[in-house]
Design a protein that fits this description.
Blueprint: H1 27-41, E1 45-52, E2 55-62, E3 71-76, H2 81-95, E4 98-103, H3 108-116, E5 127-130, H4 131-150
Parallel strand pairs: 3-4, 4-5
Antiparallel strand pairs: 1-2, 2-3
Length: about 150
């Protein structure tokens, strides 16, 4: 009887609930996603959170599904760089993987310090990739991949 048809005494229906805010992925997870995408663009078999003797590597690239990792990656954006390098050293020791550490630019001096000292054995094996360069590589490879597809070369 007292429907809202311009009658100020009637209560209008409540507004619909707003959707929950989207949770933005961390820089760590974004970097892992980039590594998986880059690996797939390079035709590797990719896996994240790859098990290794009770630990997990952030991302690995393998040439074949059931093979050992050709590349092993750890991403450290404000995390424990020592532990990340230790996991990569272990991947190198047991699989002879090419080991890569993704860090922000501010972490590079700490990585260099650890490679001169504690982890000198893998100093010539470990490559450090700054997060910003990883983003650039992904964009460049995606462009090449799109062009190859357009030209029928993929």
């Amino acid at each position: 009887p007292n429907e809202y048809l311009g009658d100020p005494s009637a209560n209008p229906p409540p507004p619909p609930p707003s959707p929950p805010p989207e949770r933005q992925r961390s820089r760590h997870d974004q970097a892992k996603d980039l590594l998986v995408e880059i690996g797939r663009l390079r035709r590797f078999v990719c896996a994240d959170e790859y098990r290794m003797d009770g630990e997990r590597l952030d991302v690995v690239w393998k040439r074949v599904e059931h093979g050992v990792p050709t590349y092993a990656f750890e991403v450290q954006v404000g995390g424990n760089i020592y532990q990340a390098i230790a996991k990569l050293k272990h991947a190198f020791d047991i699989w002879n993987s090419k080991i890569r550490l993704v860090v922000d630019a501010e972490s590079v001096p700490r990585v260099k310090e650890l490679l001169r000292g504690t982890f000198h054995e893998v100093a010539n094996e470990l490559r450090v990739i700054e997060l910003e360069k990883l983003e650039h590589l992904q964009r460049a490879l995606a462009t090449v991949h799109d062009l190859e597809r357009e030209l029928g070369l993929s």
